Amino acid sequence: MKTDTLTSELLHKMNAYWRAANYLSVGQIYLYDNPLLKRPLRLSDVKPLVVGHWGTTPGQNFIYAHLNRVIKKYDLDMFYIAGPGHGGPAIVGNVYLEGTWSEVYPNVTQDEAGLKELFKQFSFPGGISSHVAPTTPGSIHEGGELGYSLSHAFGAVFDNPDLVVACVIGDGEAETGPLATAWQSNKLLNPISDGAVLPILHLNGYKISNPTVLARIEHEELEQFIRGCGWTPYFVEGDEPEAMHQLMAGTLDTAIEQIRRIQSNARSQNDTTRPRWPMIVLRSPKGWTGPKVVDGLAVEGTFRAHQVPLLVDPEHAQHVPQLEQWMKSYKADELFDEQGRLMPDLAELAPKGHRRMGANPHANGGGLLRDLRMPDFRVHAVHVPSPGAVDGQDTLVLGQFLRDVVKLNREPRNFRIFGPDETLSNLLGAVFEVTPRQWDAREVSNDEFLAPAGGVLDSMLSEHQCEGWLEGYLLTGRHGLFNSYEAFIRIVDSMFSQHAKWLKVTSELPWRRKIASLNYLLASHVWQQDHNGFTHQDPGFLDHVINKKANIVRVYLPPDANCLLSVFDHCLRSRNYVNVVVAGKHALPQWLTMEAAVVHCTEGIGIWQWASNDQGTDPDVVMACCGDTPTLEILAAVSILRQHLPDLKIRVINVVDLMKLQSSTEHPHGLDDCDYDSLFTRDKHIIFGFHGYPWLVHRLTYRRTNQNLHVRGYKEEGTITTAFDMRVQNDLDRFHLVQDVVDRLPHLGTKGAYLKQLMRDKLIEHKQYIDQHGQDLPEIRNWKWGLHATTEPVRQWMKPAA
Prior knowledge:
The chain contains 26 helices and 22 strands. It is of the alpha/beta class and about 800 residues long. The strands form 6 sheets. Strands 12-9-13-14-16-15 form a 6-stranded parallel beta sheet, with helices on both faces. A 5-stranded parallel beta sheet has the order 1-2-3-5-4, sandwiched between helices. Helix 1 (about 10-30) crosses helix 3, helix 2 (about 55-75) packs parallel to helix 3 and helix 6 packs across helix 15. The radius of gyration is 31 Å and the shape is elongated. The termini are far apart.
């Protein structure tokens, strides 16, 4: 690298700017008052509770200052992702220095009063967190949980050809599974249609109290690792500021110019050969420029610099002079004028307008968001001449609709499908009629659907990457869908939580614009794993999701393909939600016409009049269902009951929108008590077939008047077995459901006793049959609504749900 990139004057100014950022960072961690140290520092000037993280901060200040220079030199469209945990003082301070913070928060002015407010708000009640958060202009990445920075960066640059994302990765963060895998994302980046990610691995040697792996391996091994991941590494190492400034400046120029050469060649020559993108390794001391020794113990360059390197409180009042000495080492009087404003010649170092990283429009993606061009989902309607008369594969039908969505939004591309190698398995393969998978690594002759540019990103078997890419894509103003096996979406439980928290906070920030919703399609679900078995059976993501704020989460379990189409049209149009949709891919009965499905899904819950026989009177029992398989079994049980107990009055209720069960006082989709009682009655027994864990329904309805609720769902029983036997093992099958009704209605007397005995006999017959034949009974496989059971014709079934 060149070591004379900076003139003496520019070097002096950049070092001063770095000192200013470091001064602001220390002030944020410690000071309550006296922001410019115009009088001797007193203990009362220090916050009562000093919290924060210093160790990563000076290195990030160094990086930010140098990125400002290359943004101006090359007129870059760039923003910054701060991966190291709790590096908030650096980013907040730099966004303040460039002027963006004061524009977004006018009470934090560019003067001494504003400095006081800036310092006080940090890790202070009613203020801001110690890590980069939604409150930080220029951020799309929550710094509190480690591992996702590089995934977010790649998601941001997909279909953003002019964008460069500088992604700073902490060496502790680099030890997480998601980040370790994210290095491979360069195999999916198209230099023609996508932007560029510039990773900056910040090696400062320590985590909270341990050394980091990548900082302790030999230089040759580290370089081999990075090159093995397909990158060209450039090393900036040292602790002497002047030499480090020159080395960093020359290295950044080299990296930016290499990125531009790669993109120029690819775009002028239509060359999609996978390049080796540049990345930077910055090795600097942890807590650089901070206290070197405190109470006889080394701090700078050790793990002790990680959080607050110098305790200052009534028990450590003797540290006040050392804090003052530390802060004065930055020579604030050379950096800020008497009024507390950054000196004009230093302020000139920052980019202007939207070129400031804190003001980059991509980091407030809702402002760039364009509505999807949506096809008419009704053209894909399954023709249903009567309830259950035809079978259909719900996700196969959805795939045709998604194909049309992809087709309408590919020039320019505004929608992508993400998934860990499960798009075909989940029967969404129709999308490959109009777009390939994106893949920039080597291809062989028998590959399918691979191309350097494509609208599907499912070529990497990592749920973490799919989630991170999609979040980055959404946060920079685009739309998308994550399809996954239901059991393995649990891998991203924590990533979902962080995104839901982000949406919760941003919904309270008027300057943050709404983004497209995070849409999950969970297929290959718990009731369709007859060949995979117990490992693939876990519907618990639903339990996890509903813990989040009610104004953020939505959960849908459509019973058939037409309902699935209606639900997904709604989800793709929505904003600032997390939508979870559970749907099956195996052939199951189709229940509703498209007209009836639209009404039913709009209401989210309703009585299926065509399956009920309680019109004009009170029901004896309510049979409710939520999910495609529970709906099938509830209706099969109803058919048995109506055949053998024709006088029994049954009301059938189907739930599409799970949150309808919750009170309207707790969720905006919830039913009020009057409407809930109207549907479920105030005192009749409710036999409820549910897709997931039964206690979730009890949790949602615990405040309702009618507590005669008996939920049957997945109770952690499963193995390699038939589809129906899975239901039997979990007491969700029709035979157990019928017995349950009989047990709840003692007035059925002898008729009920005989029917219950028949159901026991059928369960024994079922077990003997599958043990011998390896498949379900013919009467199970060939069952149709209306052929065995109902005592009256299925008339008027097309009426919408009540």
